[in-house]
Every structure is written in structure tokens, then in C-alpha cells.
Automatic annotation (TrEMBL):
Species assigned in the record: Koribacter versatilis (strain Ellin345)
Membrane spanning residue stretches: 20-41, 313-336, 348-367, 387-406
Keywords (A to Z) from UniProt: Glycosyltransferase, Membrane, Transferase, Transmembrane, Transmembrane helix
Family that this chain belongs to: Belongs to the glycosyltransferase 2 family.
Keyword Transferase: yes
The name this protein goes by in its record: Glycosyl transferase, family 2
InterPro entries: Nucleotide-diphossugar_trans
Length: 422
């Protein structure tokens, strides 16, 4: 029976190897990451050369800015966050901290700062999640420009001086900042530091050249209050309120920009378990947004959204192809069969993909080094990115996108105790 089962398995593996689907999947597997890497590299360098050093100055008096800081179980970090906010080099702002029924003494820490007229506290008695916390704070805001930051963020002194001038443009609804990793202890955290320069930041530069961005950063972004109220505020049931807000604004033809000079310092997950939970939510949130705006590919008026819509679809599809092809190859090699495109040793295409990935990581880190002088010290860990980290991200995407497509989201997305950016 065992030889018969073995022969049947070999026959099935050979059958897969000779299908047209396998041939096209193999090409997609190899060509897509190389092609997109060069797209991101070229467009981001174009942005860096043509737009990044453009000086923007405010005309007239500095407008009032309301800084919103939603918090849940952040007693250990919120003290440093407030201290940094009070040192902002900007003459006209307020800080509204929203304690969303934290189980710790977050509210008590904030109360120590209430003698400063710039600090106010909204102390909620029911945990309703980040989106509802922000919505509840909107009536308290005196500024037309709202800046949202996480409760574990350390802002740079000139943050508002770089973000606010963008709103002189009448069609600008939001500006996303440049979050940098400050807790670099483990290899995993160094990889995330490189990722935020070479994947997240690079893609935002490139997407700005294309005219639409995938998302503002939940860790730090500014939004025009009137535009936000026009949409009805933040959506409580979406897993990622930042992606959802970005798409809804752009669907209304508002402009969303990226300002790399608006630097903040954030904490990222320390453990693999924390990272998995964070990226699970990101994957679910993206699928929810794609589902919500599934009319984009057939709507000519939404054609400027096509690049980010299709790139999101193809990146998800590539993750599934990556996981399925790798699983197929591992099974084949385990039973002594070598299908087309696979080798137990690095082959041409494997080396091409890895080299292109590392080149993108290097260029991204090199471009962002002026905002994060220590980023190049994290680059040696980048060798693990195409081997381990890439596979981890593909697994998370393939595990959770299809369930998110069919699962009905809860009424509100409540907080979970975590460490790392929202």
C-alpha cells in the first residue's frame, strides 16, 4: 500500500508540474516582486528628487491644531508622549487625550498634566475602540486641522511645521507623517525598522507620484476636520480605521499627501506573537476596504484609485501563490521529485528576487537616513527579510484575507492590550 500511495503522490505532483496554471503561477511568482520593486524604487526616487526638499511655509497666522491621542492601557508610555507634545515648536495647538476605559491608571497619569491649558482629558467609561474614541473627541476640537497620534508616540519638535502647511491646498484632506522605530533591540525589531523605510515609506513616496496613497499611518496623520465630518467621522467597525479613512477621502476626490519630514518615533512589536496579531489586523482591514470599495475597477471616475486597488489585489494574490508554490515544492523535494522552477540550492530567479529585494531595502534605508540616522545600523539584519520575514508576511496574508472577505465585522472594533503602533 505504501509504494502505491507513493506512486500516486508522484503522479499527482507531476500532473501539477505540467499544467498551464503552474507555468503562469511560476512566472507570476518570479516576475511580480521584481517588477514592483523597480516601480517603487524609481517612483520613490523621483519623489525624493522633485518634491521632498520643497520648502513649505504658512501664509498668515498659524491655524489652530487639535492633537488627538486615543489611549487604552498606555500608562507606561503616555507620560513620554505628553512630554514630547508639550515641547512642540508651534504656537497654536491643543492636546486632547481620550482614555477609552483603560484597565490601568492611564487617566491618572494624564491628570498630572491638566494644569497646562493645552491639555484636556476625555475619560470614557466604556471601551469602544480607537475609531469611537476619536469620534467622541471631535466635538471638543477647536482646530480645523486635527492631528491623530498613538499614545506611545514621541513626536519631533517640528512635526506640525511640516504637516500644517500642506492644508493651504484647498483639496488637501489629510497628510500622513513618517513613523520611525525607536525600540530596536531584537532582530525582529530591526527588520521592522528597515521595513518602515524600505517598504512603507518607499511605497508612500511612489504612490504620491501616482496620485493616490494606500493609507495614512495610524501612528501619525493630520486630517481636515470638515472633510472628516463630511464623511461622518471614523468608521467603528473597520479593523483599520486609517486605511478606511484614506480610501473614503480619496473616493470623494480629496487629496492625501505624504510628508516624510514629519517624523515621529514609535514602538513596534517585540515578539513574533505581537507582530502576528498586528499584521493579522492589517490584512483583515485591507480586505474590508477592498470589499467596501469593490466598485472601483468598473468606475471610470475612480481611475486614479486603480493603481493602489490592483496592486493590493495582486500583492494578496502573490502571497497565496508564494505559500502554495513553496508548499508544493517542499512536498515534491521531500518525496524526491524536482518540479520546474525549484532547486534545493539558490537558482537564478531566487537570487534575482532576493537581490532585488535587498536593493530595495538598501535604497529605502539610504533615502530615509536623513530622518533616521541610525537606520543603516539595522540594515545588516535585512538579509533575513526575503528569507524569513517575507514568508511570515505571506503566511499572515494568506491565512486571514479570505476569512475577512466573508466574515461580518463586529459593530465596533474594540481595543486589545498590545505593544506596537496601531
Amino acid at each position: 500500500m505504501i509504494p502505491l500511495a507513493y506512486e500516486s503522490l508522484l503522479k499527482a505532483l507531476r500532473a501539477v508540474d505540467h499544467t498551464v496554471v503552474y507555468v503562469y503561477a511560476l512566472r507570476f511568482y518570479g516576475l511580480y516582486p521584481i517588477l514592483m520593486s523597480w516601480v517603487w524604487i524609481s517612483l520613490s526616487l523621483f519623489f525624493r528628487r522633485r518634491q521632498e526638499d520643497t520648502e513649505m511655509e504658512m501664509s498668515g497666522p498659524a491655524p489652530m491644531v487639535s492633537i488627538l491621542v486615543p489611549a487604552f492601557a498606555e500608562a507606561e508610555t503616555i507620560d513620554d508622549t505628553i512630554e514630547a507634545l508639550l515641547k512642540l515648536d508651534y504656537p497654536n495647538y491643543e492636546v486632547i487625550l481620550v482614555n477609552d476605559c483603560s484597565p490601568d491608571n492611564t487617566a491618572e497619569v494624564v491628570r498630572q498634566y491638566l494644569d497646562d491649558p493645552r491639555i484636556r482629558l476625555l475619560n470614557k467609561q466604556v471601551n469602544e475602540g480607537k475609531a469611537m474614541a476619536l469620534n467622541d473627541a471631535l466635538p471638543m476640537c477647536r482646530g480645523e486641522i486635527l492631528v491623530v497620534i498613538d499614545a506611545d508616540i514621541i513626536v519631533s519638535r517640528d512635526l506640525l511645521n511640516y504637516m500644517v502647511p500642506h492644508f493651504a491646498g484647498t483639496r488637501v484632506a489629510a497628510v500622513t507623517g513618517n513613523p520611525r522605530v525607536r525600540n530596536r533591540v531584537s532582530i525582529l525589531q530591526h527588520l521592522q525598522a528597515v521595513e518602515f523605510s524600505s517598504i512603507v515609506s518607499m511605497q508612500r513616496r511612489a504612490q504620491r507620484v501616482l496620485g493616490r496613497v494606500l493609507t495614512v499611518s495610524g501612528a501619525v496623520f493630520a486630517v481636515r476636520r470638515s472633510a472628516l465630518l463630511e464623511l461622518g467621522g471614523f468608521t467603528p467597525h473597520m479593523a483599520t480605521e486609517d486605511i478606511d479613512l484614506t480610501w473614503r477621502l480619496q473616493m470623494k476626490f480629496w487629496d492625501v499627501r505624504y510628508e516624510p519630514r514629519a517624523v515621529v518615533w514609535m514602538q513596534v512589536p517585540l515578539s513574533l506573537r505581537e507582530l502576528w496579531k498586528q499584521r493579522k489586523r492589517w490584512a483583515r482591514g485591507l480586505v474590508q476596504v477592498l470589499k467596501r470599495h469593490r466598485e472601483v475597477p468598473t468606475n471610470w471616475k475612480m481611475r486614479r484609485m486603480w493603481p493602489i486597488f490592483y496592486e493590493s489585489i495582486f500583492s494578496i494574490l502573490w502571497s497565496y501563490v508564494f505559500v502554495l508554490m513553496t508548499s508544493y515544492w517542499l512536498i515534491s523535494l521531500a518525496v524526491g521529485y524536482a518540479p520546474r522552477g525549484v532547486s534545493p540550492f539558490p537558482n537564478f530567479w531566487g537570487m534575482m528576487i532576493a537581490t532585488t529585494c535587498l536593493l530595495q531595502l538598501f535604497i529605502g534605508a539610504w533615502v530615509d537616513r536623513q530622518y533616521d540616522p541610525g537606520i543603516m545600523w539595522s540594515f545588516p539584519e535585512a538579509v533575513f527579510y526575503p528569507v524569513i520575514y517575507w514568508m511570515l508576511m505571506a503566511l499572515i496574508t494568506s491565512f486571514y484575507t479570505i476569512p475577512a472577505l466573508f466574515k461580518k465585522p463586529p459593530r465596533v472594533q474594540t481595543w486589545r492590550i498590545r505593544r506596537g503602533p496601531a
